[in-house]
Design brief:
This protein is α/β, with parallel strands linked by helices. 48% of the residues lie in helices and 13% in strands. It is elongated and about 70 Å long. Strand 5 and strand 6 form a beta hairpin.
């Protein structure tokens, strides 16, 4: 007997959003979770789980809630259009929310350029390298979302940004000569942004504090310091003060080992001159 194929996971981010809409409609109607549960004849825990995005809202219950809460079909439409797969996993959604609100970001990259610095063509090429492959629609959606994140660079009050990138990343032939030349030019333009410090860790450097891989340091508007570490099979937030401090020390060492921002501009100029 063949093994039963597990169902594809629902979009947890959208489930959470739909849950927040239900909670807002419930409060607007003056109901507690317990009172609403009694009206629709389910357990209070069921309502709580749906509002927290931990349980799917079923179409028949959505229709009943629309009627009781007078939400004019909003919940039913949300259920009917719930995507099957997350555009971004929950941890990535949380990161991008913090990224949008951060007052300071420090990023170390040693595999590909950080998403905030990628051109559209470079980003699309990186996404096409994914194994197993994304579908064409998914590639275009994710590329657009990655480029949209870069609006923080052009804000009237952008965050303070620091990037340290290992030099071999600049020599990868991602996308071919034209994509590479466009990307180098884009980096050179970004290097002049007043909110940004862009440094490259030389390929010939005898010291290298970033051998454990890429990471991000982030400061929130309320001055909470967080770190974010992304790997091939998952990612993690680091909020423990001691761990964040260790990564901050590592980043400080990387900046000291890297070329200065002025020297890094010179490296880009030389690479552009060789195109």
């Amino acid at each position: 007997m063949s093994a039963k194929k597990p169902p594809r996971p629902k979009n947890l981010t959208s489930m959470k959003m739909l849950g927040k809409q239900l909670a807002a409609a419930r409060r607007a109607a003056g109901h507690t979770q317990s009172a609403l549960a009694a009206l629709v004849k389910v357990d209070e825990e069921t309502i709580a789980s749906i509002e927290q995005g931990r349980r799917s809202l079923k179409p028949d219950l959505a229709a009943l809630l629309d009627e009781i809460l007078q939400t004019k079909g909003m919940l039913s439409v949300g259920v009917a259009n719930l995507p099957e797969i997350d555009q971004f996993p929950m941890w990535a959604e949380l990161y991008m929310e913090h990224e949008r609100e951060a007052i300071a970001l420090s990023l170390y990259a040693n595999q590909v350029l950080p998403g905030l610095l990628q051109t559209r063509a470079y980003a699309e090429t990186v996404l096409r390298e994914r194994v197993p492959a994304y579908g064409e629609d998914e590639i275009q959606t994710k590329t657009a979302a990655r480029v949209e994140r870069q609006e923080i660079l052009q804000r009237a009050n952008p965050p303070t940004l620091s990037f340290v990138v290992w030099e071999p990343v600049l020599h990868l032939g991602i996308g071919g000569p034209e994509v590479q030349a466009e990307q180098l030019h884009h980096l050179r333009v970004c290097a002049e942004l007043p909110c940004m410090s862009l440094q490259f860790l030389p390929m010939a450097s005898a010291s290298h504090a970033g051998l454990d891989g890429p990471f991000v340091l982030l400061e929130t508007p309320d001055h909470q310091h967080l770190a974010y570490i992304e790997g091939q099979r998952g990612s993690q937030w680091v909020s423990d003060a001691d761990e964040v401090s260790r990564l901050s020390l590592k980043y400080a060492m990387l900046r000291a080992q890297a070329l200065s921002p002025l020297e890094s501009k010179g490296l880009l100029d030389r690479l552009l001159g060789e195109q």
